[in-house]
Amino acid sequence: MNNTFIYACAGMKTDYTPVWIMRQAGRYLPEYRKIRAKVDFLTLCKTPELAAEVTVQPVDILGVDAAILFSDILIPIEKMGLKLKFYEKKGPKFSNPVRTQKDADRLKIINPDEDVPYVLETIRILCRGLKVPLIGFSGAPFTAATYMIEGGSSKNFLETKRIIYNDPQLYQSLMEKIAETTIAYLSAQIKAGAQAVQLFDSWAGALSPSDYETAAFPYAKKVIEALKPLSVPIIYFVNDCAGILSIASEAGADVMGVDWRIDMSEAVIKTHRHTIQGNLDPCVLFSTKGHIKETALEILKKAKAARAHIFNLGHGILPETPPENVKTLVEIVHEASAI
Ligand code: CP3
């Protein structure tokens, strides 16, 4: 087992900087598209043999130091009681979003063994053969709430903020249920064999720092604190984190994942007790090999001031990315960081 990633999570010195890529299993890989051509996305997530197969693809093809479970942050939300559909161009849609107290009261806290057995089975299959650690994941409560309230992806998160400002009681009761579901879901993933977990707070950066502190941070912290006794590294990825990173770093995670809009040196200062993960702009993978190398080296250099560094993109890889450039990036990180 290549444990470089786990050591870096714990802040230990490693022979080289481990690297994995957010959304590393996906449409930019022809090998993924081949399997995806036969089944729709949700079926792929819910068929353990296929989900395990696409999880392993980037490990074999790119040589990354960790695998991330193939699933989606919306899978446990569906089981709380929302009707989920994925549309080819428009993305995910919930046809019965949460807008009233009644809507929230109808939601249940999931029982992972009964509600998402396929996720746990995928993890068990993967743990039998993987040569790198497996990362389990979930949406952070605020990011999950945006999908549940908006009914899909959003630009301004207006309905979510409307509830935060105008119906704090509804917001709190919804967030408590999401946090409990997230704790149950991630605990089950860890019990099934996930060796680390990542909370994706993809939309936390849409909040002002003070709204983040009251409406998102306490629930992320609650999840992280509940998982601590299970003794696996916890990564908290906060997208668009520049204005809220100092607060987010107090949530108790072992690793802070950061996007590319913040300079790595500044991110390290704001997260000094943590391992840092990030933060290449996914669009740099559309440039030349020379530019990819130059940018990666700069990040590696700045991240040396952190207790440890896990190289990653600053957000998910884009579907149009040339796979050979991703492979080049992984090689560059491994070679340049080797001691
Ligand atoms: O390789 C991996 O990282 C594991 C798989 C993974 C997926 N989604 C698969 C996926 C992970 C970790 C996610 C997380 C996820 N899902 C997030 C948080 C990360 C982020 O990017 O901010 C969010 C916000 C979602 C919700 C989601 N899923 C949206 C908005 C969409 C549609 C947009 C899109 O990219 O198509 C998805 C679909 C999705 N999730 C795909 C994949 C591979 C594409 C589906 C397909 O194959 O057609």
UniProtKB/TrEMBL annotation:
Alphabetical list of PROSITE patterns matching this protein: UROD_1
NCBIfam families hit by this protein: hemE
Organism for this UniProt entry: Candidatus Magnetominusculus xianensis
Similarity annotation: Belongs to the uroporphyrinogen decarboxylase family.
CDD domains xrefs: URO-D
Site keyed Transition state stabilizer: positions: D72
Encoding gene (name): hemE
Gene3D superfamilies the record matches: 3.20.20.210
Catalysed transformations (reactions): uroporphyrinogen III + 4 H(+) = coproporphyrinogen III + 4 CO2
Compartments, record wording: Cytoplasm
Pathway: Porphyrin-containing compound metabolism; protoporphyrin-IX biosynthesis; coproporphyrinogen-III from 5-aminolevulinate: step 4/4
Alphabetical list of Pfam families matching this protein: URO-D
Keywords associated with the record: Cytoplasm, Decarboxylase, Lyase, Porphyrin biosynthesis
Name the record gives this protein: Uroporphyrinogen decarboxylase
EC number annotated for this UniProt entry: 4.1.1.37
Reported function: Catalyzes the decarboxylation of four acetate groups of uroporphyrinogen-III to yield coproporphyrinogen-III.
GO molecular function, one term: uroporphyrinogen decarboxylase activity
